[in-house]
């Protein structure tokens, strides 16, 4: 087995025992990246220079017996996380040469835990998209089928983990941007509770929905990464000062006696039959181990996509106003006056999908439309939250498909925003409600494309997601299948 | 001819005297080199987040309490969206639907008596930066030091009906802000800024007329002049059958006129919405009570108390409460010397004059209130004369010495020895027989001449009352 095929916990063991060194591990990863990257294109930029310095530091600290939870482990960062002194582009032309003078809190925490950063991964521009096709730096391909999309917006991070171009990766999830690509690339992806992982230094898309989370090869790694990245941050007002458990304590525990809610609204027409079969297979396996499946209803589910596509663009239209060419990033040449500078800079600096959402967001906040759109959407959002409160009184977790279909073809939905938006239909509700969700691989389609099952839990109950994800992995051992690259 | 009633509403922006900015730890100091008091947060860099400075809420609550507002237990920040290079995020964090405080009022004193002016709301917000235009270059420069400096906006009801009332209201607000120690009140540096909405309506009519908004008035006097001008301008238009255009107008101080603001005057849609990066601000009763306990006595209450407690005329009480430091100084001196009216005269007269000459305020008065009180007691018990005291105070002020010290050094003690003074007077009478004859013939004016001579001979140290008595007796035919 190659070093780059190992999980975080396997790698860490080998590093700590001295069986390998961080430098060797990093070499193995960069060789792997060199071998597959021109086909996958998971990265926007590689951080070779600093990575080797980090690896050296990791080896030194292992020799000295100072061992962090991620010491020497190569991790990829979605290019939406600010990295001090290193370009952070958000896959946009407008930030092409932007080097933040600060680290995102999540980056600082990973650094302190000993992680080695391989590079910054590709994504939909400003995280707006579900296929990683709107990136200014080109598309990322699904390692399982290079003609297909890896999902999005964190498609680069998902593909990098699936293609063994890093041991684990960090992504962000505003409407499913971790869970959907995790499902489509056959890896584990978690979106924690809103407020659990600091957003400081995460380039904002929609502030009330954005949340950072890990992509890993298995659930154990997910617990390890959550232990590092979760926690209160005084630099973020919406960060919640709630005690963080040791997520590893939830691994390898039975879910016997658990009630698993199956929301009928998530198993309606439109789901690919193979996806449905795989997800139902996972549900039956859990039932077989002593959990109870109960049918529940989340009646406002049908409004999720509409509500999301009002609130997220509204916040985005305001969050993206700072990219005006005045202080940093791209500025159009030779404007005649201020207004033209704004117009030219933003016209050329943003891609089509970003502009579409800025326009939608500006519209729904405009005087005369605010009440009908933004305000109404906020009210419905409260009802969606209440749906979950009601259902979680009846069950421990909710089980749904992560996506309605497996990975679709490149270009298939790019010109049809509605179809593209609907690919997040099962993941959006967790962001609107602020609850945590995880996508865990649960099988393959006949064409060999991975399928994911999603579990949702009440606020701050990520432990339950680790527990049930871990239980499912034991019941359905990870297939030895790997993408053929 | 129709008689019109002006309707005026004022919006005041006051910079709060916190040492750090509203959403980051940067300094709020004025006058630093451009863009040195900045950080990624106030520069609006990608991914940064605001964290509210609690001190700002505390200061804003003080003002809300001082202006009798109802404080909203839950209030929240909203984004005001517009593009301008001095606004790094492309939105200003302000408050909109749920401001800090509402429904307050202020009693102000005008020539026509006391008047109640309603306060619609007080909210917290961040200041924007500054643009510096280079006349010789096709560039504009951006200084973001001021970005994120905390402001409160105080919006009045349209209860004001004259320029004089407007000025009285502004002075009262200004005085309270400075008294509370939450704003330095410096209008030149922009710590206290005012915009006005003005319209006219026929007297007796309830509906408001079309209003204009006035900006760029950086002194009380300018506010009053601008309003007077604008009221006349609108009156002239209405009388001529014209219509007022709703617009923003800038006061031109040198020409003494208001002109429509050009260029920037577009119908703004600020697309306010709750800022998702900040949580609801919760101000509970306990916190409010804690803050209430720190409130000083407000100027109007103090003026009334000073009149009652010390028997001072309204004018004196007004002057003495014009700043908290002055009033504190006065009260200490008055208490220590036990002669409040005399203390008032010294504080408002000689001492204030000395301070004004140097542009100093009572915070930095070189003569302590206790020293002044002792000096007054020395006059009262006859040790020194009032005339000597005037010189003495100047010396105390210049040298920072105690009165007794200077009196001893310079032998300024008053001559109260009857025998000694009699001898001096006898000499004067002997030397000036003509004047003595005149006086005795009924020309009483000459009396002053003798007083002057005696003072001259004693170096001003003669006890005036004793001198008077002796002179009268000795000049008697």
Give a short synopsis of this structure.
By secondary structure, chain A is an alpha/beta fold. Helices cover 38% and strands 13% of the residues of chain A. Helices cover 40% and strands 20% of the residues of chain B.
Plain-language structure description:
The complex is a heterodimer of chains A (485) and B (477). Chain A is of the alpha/beta class and 485 residues long. Chain A has a domain at 3-251: Amidase signature (AS) enzymes. In chain A, 38% of the residues lie in helices and 13% in strands. The longest helix of chain A is centred in the last third of the chain and has 22 residues, at 371-392. Chain A starts with 7 loop residues before the first helix and ends in a 10-residue tail after the last helix. Chain B has 15 helices and 16 strands. In chain B, helix 3 (220-239) links the parallel strand 12 and strand 13. The A-B interface holds A 80-82, 88, 90, 95, 98, 100-102, 104, 199-204, 206-208, 234-238, 314-315, 317-318, 320-322, 324, 326-328, 338, 342, 362, 365-367, 370, 374 and B 40, 43-52, 79, 81, 83, 85, 88-91, 142, 269, 271-273, 276-279.
